[in-house]
């Protein structure tokens, strides 16, 4: 975990350490290859941002983190990890978190099965929370993942899509899980529709901002910081907000996209054109608006040490661009 997030997560440090241990013991595949694939994923670690947000949201409801909240955090991370396995297969990504992806370490069939297995595991643990409302809320996320992948796959190299379509896809693929998990953290403690909806919208806006920032970093980041090649989304034809904004100023991008960056230097030229346009700044401005919307929702959830930590995490997410 990064030093900056370590400081932000200091109040739930012990819970996150337990979560890391539990994730490796929760995966109980009978077949050794499937088990090895799942273990490979969790050994790669990660910032554990989603479970941290859930644990803090749980703490905000009653100033304590109960066992079912801890299990919800673990379920969320398993679902997130399963989605990454399938994403890496679809995007043909060679590395994830600095390690070889599952389909590169094993093969594509094993990776798909590993992702399916993790989704199934998460569903089992979810059912055992014994809360029908939470089961329905989280189960919808898996449907959203599929919807998001279909939308993305149907629009590769399509420069005629609108930013709104991009935002819908971003909700399905990223924000839906964070939103549903935040809401569920409330539902496990307090059956209050208003508060749980504020929690849901906090996760929704935070997730949209997070995805947009990730998409900006895909253009302006480095392979070392990203853990994957720069411009991978663009190369694969996944046209994100900064690219869609840049198209208005840089029509040359259209011809590069139409030929799917097939000529030598096409991708590098496209990245240059995007960077010199206002596309990056427009995307930053939109991400900042979502960050502000998320903070507005947090203010509706009262004032506590956990809420303060969530505000700090929300600000931190935007500072990744600095």
TrEMBL record:
Q: Which UniProt keywords apply?
A: Chloroplast, Isoprene biosynthesis, Magnesium, Metal-binding, Plastid, Transferase
Pfam families from the UniProt entry? polyprenyl_synt
Query: Do you know which PROSITE patterns this protein is assigned to?
Result: POLYPRENYL_SYNTHASE_1 (PS00723), POLYPRENYL_SYNTHASE_2 (PS00444)
Q: Which InterPro entries match?
A: Isoprenoid_synthase_dom_sf (IPR008949), Polyprenyl_synt (IPR000092), Polyprenyl_synt_CS (IPR033749)
* CDD domains for the chain: Trans_IPPS_HT (cd00685)
As cofactor, the record names: Mg(2+)
Q: What is this protein called?
A: Prenyl transferase
Q: Which organism is it from?
A: Bulboplastis apyrenoidosa
């Amino acid at each position: 975990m990064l030093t900056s997030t370590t400081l932000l997560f200091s109040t739930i440090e012990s819970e996150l350490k337990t979560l890391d241990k539990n994730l490796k013991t929760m995966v109980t595949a009978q077949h050794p290859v499937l088990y090895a694939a799942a273990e490979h994923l969790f050994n790669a670690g990660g910032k554990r941002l989603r479970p941290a947000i859930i644990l803090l949201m749980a703490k905000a409801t009653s100033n304590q983190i109960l066992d079912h909240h801890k299990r919800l955090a673990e379920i969320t991370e398993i679902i997130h990890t399963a989605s990454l396995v399938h994403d890496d297969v679809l995007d043909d990504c060679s590395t994830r978190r600095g390690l070889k992806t599952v389909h590169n370490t094993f093969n594509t069939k094993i990776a798909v099965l590993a992702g399916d297995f993790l989704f199934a595991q998460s569903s089992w643990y979810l059912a055992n929370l014994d809360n029908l409302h939470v089961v329905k809320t989280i189960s919808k996320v898996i449907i959203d993942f599929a919807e998001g992948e279909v939308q993305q796959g149907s629009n590769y190299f399509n420069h005629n899509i609108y930013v709104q379509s991009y935002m819908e896809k971003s909700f399905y693929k990223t924000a839906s899980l964070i939103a549903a998990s935040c809401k569920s953290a409330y539902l496990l403690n307090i059956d209050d529709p208003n508060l749980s909806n504020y929690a849901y919208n906090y996760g929704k806006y935070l997730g949209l901002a997070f995805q947009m920032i990730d998409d900006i970093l895909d253009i302006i980041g480095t392979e070392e910081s990203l853990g994957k090649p720069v411009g991978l989304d663009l190369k694969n034809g996944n046209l994100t907000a900064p690219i869609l904004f840049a198209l208005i100023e840089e029509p040359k991008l259209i011809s590069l996209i139409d030929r799917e960056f097939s000529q030598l230097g096409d991708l590098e030229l496209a990245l240059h054109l995007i960077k010199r346009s206002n596309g990056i700044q427009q995307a930053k401005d939109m991400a900042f608006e979502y960050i502000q919307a998320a903070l507005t929702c947090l203010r509706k959830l009262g004032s506590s040490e956990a809420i303060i930590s969530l505000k700090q995490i929300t600000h931190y997410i935007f500072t990744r661009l600095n």
